[in-house]
Design a protein that fits this description.
By secondary structure, the protein is mainly α. It has helices at about 5-10, 10-20, 75-105, 110-120, 125-155, 165-195, 200-225, 235, 240-250, 290-295, 295-310, 315-345, 360-395, 405-420, 425-435, 440-450; strands at about 25, 230, 260-265, 275, 285-290.
Amino acid sequence: MGRSASLHVFLFVIFVSLGCSQVSFAAAPQVARAELKPYPAQTSPQDKNSPPSPASGSQTSEQSRTEQYTLSQERYEKAVAYSRADYTLYFVSYFLGGLFLFLILRLGVAAKFRDIAENVSEKRWVQGVVFVPLLFLTIDALDLPISVYWHSLSLRYEQSIQGWGSWFWDWAKGEFVVMVLGIPVVLVLYALMRRSPRRWWLYAWVPAVLFELALIVITPMVIDPLFNKFEPLNKEHPELVASIEKLTNRAGVPIPPERMYLMLASQKTNAINAYVTGLGASKRVVIWDTTIQKTTNDEALFIVGHELGHYVLGHVWKGFLLGAAGLLVALYLLFRGLHWTLGRWAKDWNLYGPEDWASLAVLLLLLQVLLFFSSPVISGVSRMEEHAADVYGLEVIHGLIPNSAEVAAHAFQVLGELDLADPNPPAFITFWLYSHPPLGDRLVFAHSYDPWSKGESPKYVK
Ligand SMILES: [Zn+2]
């Protein structure tokens, strides 16, 4: 789905909270950029390009051994080319995003928008309602070609099957969501800045954390359905729900069937995935319909097992807490950065102070920088959680599914082929933007993880 720049840049809260709190099974390279759905890539189901892989049915007794992530020559070349293009675009898009914000300030565009807003009304809130959409839409219009290129790339590599009309409609909805969420956030922030020029960063933290919490709770119920259709997993796949219940009972953490959803991803993508999201009433496990279509029952159960790991290990809660801590640090750095920047360039950029609406563009620019440099930390934490979820998934299916290590390894193989996972990501790229360990590592780990035969105790599922 198209993610617009201001959604990307401005809603740091969403990034941190949802980036950390929606934990999925798979991640394509674009992970680092795609905050809400660590996802983009796919190939079509019975794609003619698909190498001889997913044996249908769940005959786990057959002798295939998936010890390494291997691709056909043709698939390998595609995976490498797609990944490289993706990494490049990631860095280019950050650079351009920053450049656009700088130009908006340097060329006096932000100041111009402020003048327009101030001429409309004396009332601060009216000014905000005028100013915020002007700025956001401008940024996103500038950013649009990058988003378009990103989507064309995923179409070219048969990762997405979403037509342009549908894609633009998602983009427009994304803009709408940004406005609805962004305007009140900016109004509250600037009210606090006027009231308390030196402490606003601290006072703003309280509503920011509440906002983050509210977002995590409502996103699965309100925002996600704007972009994809969901239905109870029980509706079409009661047998899968029954198998999952066996898993969860074994894990000692029964998850009620009404917390399991099917996402109709096949309308837009060929990728397979699943994720855990929400808090409180909206807490849920979501499985893409493509996952069920393209994997065997046992493989799908391993993928669900991985998600149960996120659920049971409380990764959404931990993501929320991490996001809250990150927000405090970010707000303080924004406060310092804003004063520093204005001290130098306020005159050049025609800004009269922090409480000037136009300084929002400075905050966005600083956020862009912060976000960029926090990426390795966020990715690192995420990779640890993903590994833990892999371990959990392997343990929870052990003994219930015959030949479970092979099943899990083969699930990764299927995932890699469909998503064109990079067989050999550069170490720096992994460090900087991989939300999941490289696919090849996950596969090898899945195939070799065996505490049982060594008389060791499994880590999570005893
Ligand atoms: Zn995961």
